[in-house]
Design a protein that fits this description.
By secondary structure, this protein is of the alpha+beta class. The chain has two domains: 171 residues, Gcn5-related N-acetyltransferase (GNAT) (Aminopeptidase, 3-Layer(aba) Sandwich); 200 residues, Aminopeptidase (3-Layer(aba) Sandwich). Strands 1, 3, 4, 5, 6, 7, 8, 9, 10, 11, 14, 15, 16 and 17 form a 14-stranded mixed β-sheet that branches. Strand 3 and strand 4 form a beta hairpin. The protein contains nine helices and 17 strands. The chain binds tetradecanoyl-COA and ligand JJ1.
Length: 388
């Protein structure tokens, strides 16, 4: 059934019942001298191109490939529209490898027709902190689909990851592959209900009018929690402490240090937003919340071309109740003109989704590890990892 995935060191559907298999790496590393030295062959019309994301022209080519050919919802009404600034942020974290930004171009026109990327991360599974690659932005141009190019891209990124002596990876997908460690649901909180209904993102509920719906989703004009403010550079150490202590509670989570927190959580306009609560009395940082900006193109609508969406990222509450903290996140997102606030049912998110009027979406997100088995998988609430 899965001609490619059956050959890979991932949990196989047929092993699901076998409880004797241990947690941890599925196969051991091989000596670096045994890692294949040259790129996998591509069909004759194409060539590999290692991408330089500091090159603005290349970045725009990557942006356009994804804007026209990346992930859509099941009814092809919306398509993710990652911005160039977001792509640079996502792909150039501390100690990134340029060799892991892998393009495929048409030899003749030099047009970028496919892409896959990895970035390095330390991810903890139970008590094991593992160096991994986070694989993302796998994309094949619509005109080149179903020609088995994706397995070539995956093998090539695997080879380049192995060359750095890294043997595990984490990735997410909307499709079921062998085999998810967990399956999460997307939840959506309307901020601009009229527009969401106009573009077909949501529907008027039964026995609801537009004006009742607008009233239902109304939010205060400013955050309610005293001491709630944007995160700044001087907060990196305090936020790192909060986040490390919090993420320790989950079965699978990133192992963030201050350098990671500076990159992944310090606010960048229209890319990532982070807020915290600083106690007005003690000036202690007690709570933290964040979201990233990922618009979607609206396909086939006469009035609107994009939806501005915020995606819940990492949130930590020690003093302000999580529900109150996230309500403030909704308020700032509304003030910043987002149309919708999205969240997965990971970590403790279930505790606020219904209360804050999120509704379940029609999309799922499956989480995977490469060459690392987690027997029986985990629940979404045991997952402390958000990929972009
Ligand atoms: S998930 C986002 C993926 N991108 C999109 O959905 C964008 C729109 N779609 C496309 O561009 C294409 O449809 C793609 C497939 C490129 C997805 N993950 O070439 P094919 C398997 C993994 O004929 P195409 C993200 O970015 C499929 O089961 N495998 O198909 C994370 C089949 O294999 P098998 C996938 O449609 C990516 C084979 O590919 C996915 O032209 C993580 C068919 O190939 C998918 N999303 O192209 C990648 N979709 O026969 C894995 C299909 O066995 C990383 N397939 O069923 C693994 C870790 C690597 C590093 C390891 C280091 C140690
Ligand atoms: O955005 C998604 N679904 C929306 C739009 C559905 C349009 C028709 N298919 C949705 N809207 C309902 C919202 C409503 C608001 C008021 C309260 C009740 C709910 O459900 C979905 C997620 O739900 N998104 C996708 O399908 C996009 C792809 C998701 C898989 C992503 C793969 C990621 C790749 C990894 O790197």
């Amino acid at each position: 059934r899965h001609k490619f995935w059956e050959t890979q060191p991932v949990g196989q559907f047929r092993d699901a019942a076998d409880t004797s298999l241990p947690d941890g790496p599925i196969e051991p590393p091989t000596p670096l001298s045994e890692v294949r030295a040259d790129p996998y062959p591509l069909p004759a019309a194409f060539e590999w191109h290692t991408c330089d994301l500091d090159d603005d022209a290349l970045l725009v080519d990557l942006y356009s490939l994804l804007a026209h050919n990346y992930v859509e919802d099941d009814e092809n009404m919306f398509r993710f529209n990652y911005s160039p600034a977001f792509l640079r942020w996502a792909l150039k974290p501390p100690s990134f490898f340029r060799a892991w930004h892998i393009g495929v171009r048409a030899k003749e026109s030099k047009k970028l027709v496919a892409f896959i990327s990895g970035v390095p991360a330390r991810i903890r599974a139970r008590d094991d902190v593992v160096r991994m690659a986070e694989i993302n932005f796998l994309c094949v141009h619509k005109k080149l689909r179903s020609k088995r190019l994706a397995p070539v891209l995956i093998r090539e990124v695997t080879r380049r990851v192995h060359q750095e002596n890294i043997w595990q990876a984490a990735y997410t997908a909307g499709v079921v592959l062998p085999t998810p460690i967990t399956t999460c649901r997307y939840w959506h909180r309307s901020l601009n209900p009229k527009k969401l209904i106009d573009v077909g993102f949501s529907r008027l509920g039964p026995r609801m009018t537009m004006s009742r719906t607008v009233r239902l989703y109304k939010l205060p004009d400013a955050p309610l929690t005293p001491g709630f403010r944007r995160m700044e550079f001087r907060d990196v150490a305090a936020v790192t402490r909060l986040l490390r202590a919090y993420l320790a509670k989950f079965v699978v989570a990133p192992d963030f240090d201050e350098v990671d927190v500076e990159h992944w959580l310090l606010p960048q306009e229209d890319v990532v937003d982070s807020y915290l609560v600083e106690s007005p009395e003690t000036h202690e940082v007690t709570d933290f919340c964040s979201f990233y900006t990922l618009p979607s193109s609206v396909l086939n609508n006469a009035t609107y071309s994009t939806l501005k969406a915020a995606y819940s990222y990492y949130n930590v509450s020690t003093k302000t109740p999580l529900q109150q903290l996230m309500n403030d996140a909704l308020i700032v997102a509304k003030q910043k003109n987002y149309d919708v606030f999205n969240a997965l049912d990971v970590m403790e998110n279930e505790s606020f989704l219904k209360e804050l009027k999120f509704g379940p979406g029609d999309g799922q997100l499956h989480y995977y590890l490469y060459n690392y088995r987690i027997r029986n998988g985990i629940k979404p609430s045991e997952l402390g990892l958000v990929l972009l």
